Amino acid sequence: TGTYDFKAAESKWAQVWDDLGVYKPLDDGSKERRYVLDMFPYPSGDLHMGHAEAFAMGDVVARYWRQKGFDVLHPIGWDSFGLPAENAAIKRNAHPAEWTYKNIDTQAASFKRYGISVDWSRRLQTSDPEYYRWTQWLFIELFNRGLAYRQNSPVNWCPKDQTVLANEQVVNGACERCGTLVTKKELNQWYFKITDYAQQLLDDMEQLEGHWPERVLAMQRNWIGRSEGAHVNFVIEALEGSEDTGRQVTVFTTRPDTLYGATFFVVAADAKLAAEIVAPEQAAALEEYREQVKALSDIDRLATDHEKTGVFLGRYAINPLNGEKLPVYAADYVLADYGTGAIMAVPAHDQRDLDFAKAMGLPVRAVVDTGEEDPAVTGIATSGTGTLINSGDLNGLTKEEGYAKAIEMVREQGTGDAYINFRLRDWLVSRQRFWGAPIPIIHCDSCGAVPVPDEQLPVRLPEDMRGEQLAPKGQSPLASNAAWVNTECPSCGKAATRDTDTMDTFVDSSWYYLRYMSPNNSEAAFDQEAMKNWMPVDQYVGGVEHAILHLLYSRFITKALADLGHINFTEPFKALLNQGQVLNGGKAMSKSLGNGVDLGQQLDEYGVDAIRLTMVFASPPEDDVDWADVSPSGSQKFLARAWRLAQDVTSAPGVDFAAGDKSLRSATHRTVAEAQELLDAGKFNVVIARIMSLVNATRKTIDSGAGAADPAVREATEAVAILLSLVAPYTAEDMWAQLGHEPSVALAGLPAVDPALLVEDTVTAVVQIQGKLRDRLEVSPDISEEDLKAAAMESANVQRALEGKEIRTVIVRAPKLVNIVTK
Ligand code: ANZ
Ligand code: ZN
């Protein structure tokens, strides 16, 4: 017999899998279909340990479902537009495609070596014109439906990257990528109207409950941020001697019941409104204050412990319910882009308003008698339930009654109504960068924004731009390419210009799971028949860093496409698994810590299977793996031990297992049955532990009893090979071939479980005290002495007989006898 040689196995099997097409779905309806999807990689350099973990987990699911008899679609592609390629191209005076496709080739080769069971024929890249032609189609579909619109608005601007950032890409006021402080800039930008779907995005989460991690659902809910309340219009009293007749400003409040408790009014300092209404004598003070506010992040501004500052605007807002005149302030604790950017301040019942009132010496009036101490005295706003006071017609009502009544009153007055506010903003999709899908719009002086006709798609990126020509200059690099920009209007034929922005790469990834249906289809984004057969994705696997944006955008696009009649479901991903991170020494791997582990080096040293096994065995899939705590060499030894079983089996394929050792047979059948329960429950690591036990039990049987010729040894070893194929495909193939099977263990299918063999054999143990029989226990023949002793001591009969007695010694002869000797 030979020795376990992972390198030989690795070089042999990849070709066989390719030739047999074992990972291609049959797609003929002969088996129930399942779709397993890994979040597709970004092609930065070669694969790293994080990829190795994520893809090992996804592959367990794909391989398990295949062995279980499903027709499995498990595709791969690349999210290949984006900044790093462009930055590399600027540096090297190249085109971004060069860097991108070189890295993709490197990663593809590594994925093949890593033995991921994907259908390579469906491979896609979002930067391929054949792909982004359909991203452009998607844009036009949304545009035609009024779900893509252009608007001049202040946007987050990263001065270093010279690009617009979505709100989501601003972290604590800084650029998510480079950490530079983000500023605001006025630009004409494209948006997708995701806010139209805010409520549906919330409602449909019901379908995901129990199938997606609860924390991801919570993050999405929070991001959408639904608040119930009311819009109430306040009139800003006209300035004396001015022509302005008093303009209306709407506030959003979640507490209309506190309308009588409003003692002042605040507008966001950075909102246009503040500058528009400020009285002339306060204009300079406001300007100075606005400069100060610019430097703060939203998080700082909203923090309850943030010192309250603001400027009186010299104006008064009139409360529609009681006609009271409230002084109007500009302050930073009110955000310009939340609600309406203006609030009625109720210091008695809102802590931030109270802090502001204290800082500015403004009155505090409690309107809900909560039984707590007066907020004006304690400085602590009260928010409990109680009866309304100081509230005119609302007096005596409960908070809830007051809430409804106040809304009714403003509605009757025509000054307000119930309103549901969402934190969610529309999705800013245009980028002033080169390496993305060009926005397929032509601007015509006469016709406005005209979509590029379908037969002219794709609008291709120019191939002749490189290096400095790609550098961001505050406008899109494409704008400098006159030959590309100048075109004619598809509608009137006059000279017109192309939109020079490209799409956010999140647009590319918001629909890629649909393109896998028919990646080479040149007639449609996705084939209808295939879509009905495969979608939605049964299991999506990827990092929790995509908990909000990518998943929210994909969910939105799915809903929009459903409304447009292109698909027949509303949620794209039925189940989601967030794998953990790979750490080293308890910390994320990073250059600065110098604790990086090179995947290629690990694969060279221990082999693909040992690394994959280590990833899966280390912890439950959602937990982090600390590479400092795991043992790839231990995994390698275990694989060698499993592999040697196949070498030692002497019975022939097809031998009648029924004649085999009963106890090993039952261990095999139990392992196969339990493995399925564990896999269904996502406990992949425990499955590995079960396989290890079965390997040990098999070796024990070889070393005793009927030895290697026992049919049960073959049965167990075959089961080990099939189960191991989920994590260690090369070793499993070698074992399967050694056991005399062809052509691939991937086609073996799970062994059938015989329920009769699941019943564990038991033996009867007797428990004696002073030689006298006190109880009989049914126990496993392999029970340990400690376990048998513990079982005996727990017996009610034994405890009764021992009452008041002192034990001298306990003699245990597992599995048959326990003899307790008392003093
Ligand atoms: C009066 C009031 C009385 C309020 C009270 C609260 C308690 P959520 O739940 O987050 O939606 N608000 C509205 N727009 C704001 C903005 N742009 N910046 C800062 N605060 C803003 O919060 C809604 C409440 O936050 C609103 O209800 C408003 O204050 C404030 F006892 O109105 B409330
Ligand atoms: Zn025109």
TrEMBL record:
<feature type="domain" description="Methionyl/Leucyl tRNA synthetase">
    <location>
        <begin position="40"/>
        <end position="180"/>
    </location>
</feature>
<dbReference type="Pfam" id="PF08264">
    <property type="entry name" value="Anticodon_1"/>
</dbReference>
<dbReference type="GO" id="GO:0005524">
    <property type="term" value="F:ATP binding"/>
</dbReference>
<dbReference type="InterPro" id="IPR002300">
    <property type="entry name" value="aa-tRNA-synth_Ia"/>
</dbReference>
<dbReference type="InterPro" id="IPR001412">
    <property type="entry name" value="aa-tRNA-synth_I_CS"/>
</dbReference>
<keyword id="KW-0436">Ligase</keyword>
<dbReference type="InterPro" id="IPR025709">
    <property type="entry name" value="Leu_tRNA-synth_edit"/>
</dbReference>
<dbReference type="InterPro" id="IPR013155">
    <property type="entry name" value="M/V/L/I-tRNA-synth_anticd-bd"/>
</dbReference>
<keyword id="KW-0067">ATP-binding</keyword>
<feature type="domain" description="Aminoacyl-tRNA synthetase class Ia">
    <location>
        <begin position="424"/>
        <end position="627"/>
    </location>
</feature>
<feature type="domain" description="Methionyl/Valyl/Leucyl/Isoleucyl-tRNA synthetase anticodon-binding">
    <location>
        <begin position="661"/>
        <end position="784"/>
    </location>
</feature>
<dbReference type="Pfam" id="PF00133">
    <property type="entry name" value="tRNA-synt_1"/>
</dbReference>
<keyword id="KW-0030">Aminoacyl-tRNA synthetase</keyword>
<keyword id="KW-0963">Cytoplasm</keyword>
<dbReference type="InterPro" id="IPR015413">
    <property type="entry name" value="Methionyl/Leucyl_tRNA_Synth"/>
</dbReference>
<feature type="short sequence motif" description="'KMSKS' region">
    <location>
        <begin position="588"/>
        <end position="592"/>
    </location>
</feature>
<dbReference type="InterPro" id="IPR002302">
    <property type="entry name" value="Leu-tRNA-ligase"/>
</dbReference>
<dbReference type="Pfam" id="PF13603">
    <property type="entry name" value="tRNA-synt_1_2"/>
</dbReference>
<dbReference type="InterPro" id="IPR014729">
    <property type="entry name" value="Rossmann-like_a/b/a_fold"/>
</dbReference>
<feature type="domain" description="Leucyl-tRNA synthetase editing">
    <location>
        <begin position="221"/>
        <end position="408"/>
    </location>
</feature>
<protein>
    <recommendedName>
        <fullName>Leucine--tRNA ligase</fullName>
        <ecNumber>6.1.1.4</ecNumber>
    </recommendedName>
</protein>
<feature type="binding site">
    <location>
        <position position="591"/>
    </location>
    <ligand>
        <name>ATP</name>
    </ligand>
</feature>
<keyword id="KW-0547">Nucleotide-binding</keyword>
<feature type="short sequence motif" description="'HIGH' region">
    <location>
        <begin position="41"/>
        <end position="51"/>
    </location>
</feature>
<dbReference type="GO" id="GO:0006429">
    <property type="term" value="P:leucyl-tRNA aminoacylation"/>
</dbReference>
<keyword id="KW-0648">Protein biosynthesis</keyword>
<dbReference type="InterPro" id="IPR009008">
    <property type="entry name" value="Val/Leu/Ile-tRNA-synth_edit"/>
</dbReference>
<dbReference type="GO" id="GO:0005829">
    <property type="term" value="C:cytosol"/>
</dbReference>
<dbReference type="Pfam" id="PF09334">
    <property type="entry name" value="tRNA-synt_1g"/>
</dbReference>
<dbReference type="InterPro" id="IPR009080">
    <property type="entry name" value="tRNAsynth_Ia_anticodon-bd"/>
</dbReference>
<dbReference type="GO" id="GO:0004823">
    <property type="term" value="F:leucine-tRNA ligase activity"/>
</dbReference>
<comment type="similarity">
    <text>Belongs to the class-I aminoacyl-tRNA synthetase family.</text>
</comment>
<dbReference type="GO" id="GO:0002161">
    <property type="term" value="F:aminoacyl-tRNA deacylase activity"/>
</dbReference>
